[in-house]
Amino acid sequence: MKILTTILMSAAAAAFASGGLAAEETKGKTVTLEGTATCAKCDLGTEDTCATVLQVKDGDKTVTYYITGEPDKEFHKKICKSSKEAKATGTVSDKDGKKMLEVTSIEEKTKK
């Protein structure tokens, strides 16, 4: 039983460290998420107006966070027509059934 508990705790820590955060655990907290940043209108075709979204893998599903906040205004120009890998820090909330991320910073991830 002790080994099983250790294995489960290690798996949970690995999922947390890799950005696979359960959405319920992040509400109202400052988090850093990594994923694919793109435009909900121009790339995904899911909105009528341009909106930056960050698509983050959570296990076998993808969670889409709509980005809001001052740092997004300049960043959107980089991803409107083509997606980029990005890292964003901010506070998670829900609005109209969508996950929102009020960013304090968002930047394109550099390739190693």
What does this 3D model show about the protein?
The protein contains 3 helices and 5 strands. It has 112 residues and is α+β, with helices and mostly antiparallel strands. The protein has one domain (2-108): Nucleic acid-binding proteins (OB fold (Dihydrolipoamide Acetyltransferase, E2P)), CATH 2.40.50.140. The chain has a 5-stranded mixed beta barrel. Strand 4 (84-95) and strand 5 form a beta hairpin. The radius of gyration is 15 Å and the shape is globular.
Can you summarize the main beta sheet?
A: 5 strands, mixed, barrel
Give me the secondary-structure category: alpha+beta
* Topology pattern, helix = H, strand = E: HHEEEHEE
* Number of continuous helical runs: 3
Q: Looking at the structure, what is the overall shape?
A: globular
Strand order of the largest sheet: 1-2-3-5-4
Overall pLDDT level? 82
Which blocks of ≥5 consecutive residues have pLDDT under 50? 4-22
CATH class: Mainly Beta
- Structurally, how many domains make up the residues? 1
* Architecture (CATH level 2) name: Beta Barrel
What would you give as the CATH superfamily?
Nucleic acid-binding proteins
Annotated CATH topology:
OB fold (Dihydrolipoamide Acetyltransferase, E2P)
Helical fraction equals: 25-40%
How many DSSP E strands? 5
Estimate what percentage of residues fall within beta strands: 35-45%
Rg result: 15 Å
